[in-house]
Design a protein that fits this description.
The chain starts with a helix and ends in a 5-residue tail after the last strand. The protein has about 130 residues and is α+β, with helices and mostly antiparallel strands. About 25% of the residues lie in helices and about 20% in strands. The longest helix has 18 residues. It has a 6-stranded antiparallel sheet, covered by helices on one side. It has 2 helices and 6 strands, in the order H-H-E-E-E-E-E-E. Strand 3 and strand 4 form a beta hairpin. It has one domain: Nuclear Transport Factor 2, Chain: A (Roll), CATH 3.10.450.560.
Length: about 130
Amino acid sequence: MRNVFIFLSLMMMFVLAGCGGNKYDDAINNIIDQYQDKTEKAYEDDQIKRDNALVMVYDGGKYIQIAFYNKNSERDYYPYVYYEKLGDKYEEMNNMPPDGTGDRLGLDEKTPDYEEVKGKETKLDN
């Protein structure tokens, strides 16, 4: 009976560990929702989704940079949009470069804390 309890406890730990995403999931989903609301059909619906985005998170989640791939090309994407965490929510930042280089915060010179391409986490060397 004791072995069954230990086995079930271990299985539960593995199941719970496998269900977790990353700590930025809610923030990224929130930003994509904001972007969809802002663009209101300016782009095709299938392009403004997480599995069609390039996402980079900096400074422990304080800044998130996102761009959506252009459906007509694997390499081309729409301009980067930057969000800053203010309190409990993220707000879009103004006057940031659309190509992702030379921003006023120096994010383009930093290694992101988290990065994903088309919904899949990329492994970063920190």
